[in-house]
Amino acid sequence: QTDQYILGIETSCDETAAAIIKNGREIVANVVASQIESHKRFGGVVPEIASRHHVEQLTIVFEEAMKQSKLGFEDISAIAVTEGPGLVGALLTGINAAKALAFSQGIPLIGVHHIAGHIYANRLITELEFPLLALVVSGGHTELVYMKDHASFEVIGETLDDAAGEAYDKVARTLGLPYPGGPHIDRLAHEGESNIDLPRAWLGEGSFDFSFSGLKSAVINTLHNAKQKGIEFEAKDVAASFQASVIDVLVTKTAQAVDKYEVKQLLLAGGVAANRGLRTALEERFSSRENLQLCIPPLSLCTDNAAMIAAAGSVLFEKGIRSDLALNANPGLEL
Ligand code: KG4
Ligand code: ZN
Q1: Residue 169: CB within 6 Å of ligand 1?
Q2: Percent helix, strand and coil across the chain, each rounded to 5?
Q3: Any atom of ligand 1 within 6 Å of the Cβ of 270
Q4: pTM (2 decimals)?
Q5: Where are the alpha helices (DSSP H) in 193-275?
Q6: Which domains does the chain have, with CATH numbers?
Q7: Nearest ligand (C-alpha, residue 268)
């Protein structure tokens, strides 16, 4: 039996990425070109700039991945590409590149959901055991996903407004910190004290949904009111108080879902998984639990990359799932 090699391509937001995964779990090549520097001065990702960068970087990133792998086209079993959700123009650059390669080289094409990719990043660390629960926290998503088998995703809770990372970035902006603000808040939070009373959106008994826009507004209002009274809060205490609220809600709801669904594994996924406070809180709460394995991937696999897309694509490939050349970008694709 020959080895399976999946080429992954990811261009849904502001990273241009290509990777090759062997037999579903082993990283053979993993290349990411970040555009953060280009978007920084605008305080967020500018879609048109993102697309242009992807077009420039795609060939370079793809060729580097092929070079690192020492493989040829004849070795590639399938090309997995992010079909959504994401920025439509950004997604199209990756999809068109994948289609061109698939057509010209006669290689099967597989469209992958970006969040399925984030979850499958965990399979590059450990074999998945079902049923499992994944806490997906990124710049665009905050979701609790229940999986009873491979490629079976049930969203049991999601954000009703802002994603966790979005809230981090907006609060950071209010504090005058550069984009993306998550890492800056995280750093400040460790120097400060959680001494400002901020709300937690529980959204009713038994709900696994999230809401972070009220928290963001509460931070802005609290700072505004304090200023009018001549009080100045320290940025580090604002960061610590905000982070405490986010982590409290994320960890509490995750714990309730773990109990309800009696899962064997708890996976962390998405860019906010880089948050030190969240990683520590999850470890404290879950790492010594019997019959539950907590998996937290390294930072490089939590933020956007193509290895995770290839890992998810590998499972779809084995299930016989293929996309045809009519594959299109789907910015609002459901999991
Ligand atoms: O998954 P990701 O790379 O892109 C999306 O698919 O959205 O996540 C990016 C998000 C940004 O909002 C960024 O501020 C946040 O992840 N982030 C963090 C940390 N590192 C990145 N948020 C909190 N603490 C961090 N250490
Ligand atoms: Zn992402």
Answers
A1: yes
A2: 45, 20, 35
A3: yes
A4: 0.95
A5: 213-228, 235-261
A6: 5-120+302-318 (3.30.420.40), 130-296 (3.30.420.40)
A7: 1
Residues near 185 by Cβ (< 8 Å), separated by ≥ 6?
168, 171, 172, 175, 177, 239, 242, 243
* Interatomic CA distance for residues 6 and 277, integer angstroms: 34
Q: From residue 185, give the alpha-carbon distance in Å to each of 173, 176, 272.
A: 10, 11, 11
Span 233-252, pLDDT tens digits: 999 999 999 999 999 999 99
The tens digit of pLDDT for each residue in 160-215 reads: 999 999 999 999 999 999 988 999 999 999 999 999 999 999 999 899 999 999 99
Residue 147 and residue 168: Cα distance in Å, rounded?
28
- Say yes or no: CB of residue 182 within 6 Å of ligand 1: yes
The reported pLDDT for the residue numbered 43 is 80
ipTM tops 0.85: yes
